[in-house]
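ARCHIVE CARD
Drawer: 12
Card no.: 0347
Subject: one protein chain, sequence and derived structure
Cross-reference: see card 0346
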Amino acid sequence: MIFRISLLVTLGAIGLTWASVTQSEFHALGQGTITASGTPGCQFTPAGCTVSSQGTIHGRLIGEADFASSLTVAWAAATPNGAGGYCAPASGPVQVTADQGVLTLQEQGTVCEVGATAAQAPHTFNATFYVLSGTGRFENVQGTGTAVSSVNDQGKLLVYLNGTLSGLASGDAH
């Protein structure tokens, strides 16, 4: 009986802690360009290819911001995409710099060629992200969500982030 009461008190306290955390929906859309796609032959090495991008992003909770990412794509671990191309695991940080602070995310997911392998094949990236760190308004933020992006054959990038943030300092970014 004492164990049950202790368990209920503990669960109640945890519930109160969870209830006191404010969570906010986080959505952002952006565009940019690929600034580096790795050294020649990197797709054949265990280290993979480092793909860098930068651009602008606008969204709920961050307002207008700049982003820079650096993803490592492990093409040596690629699997067929079913259309003559390949998909490979990819991960790396994304830094979002807004007027009210910096939000650093870690993304992990899969990059896929769209269609068959080609020198300038379009690609998609489907991933999850979590918040690594933040400064300013984002200093004590925790969060997670999904990241989806696509790159056309000209290196133009579209980005969409969707998730939840908690511990956000008050501010007025929309």
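Annotation on reverse: The helical segments are 2-20. Residues 120 and 173 are 37 Å apart (CA to CA).
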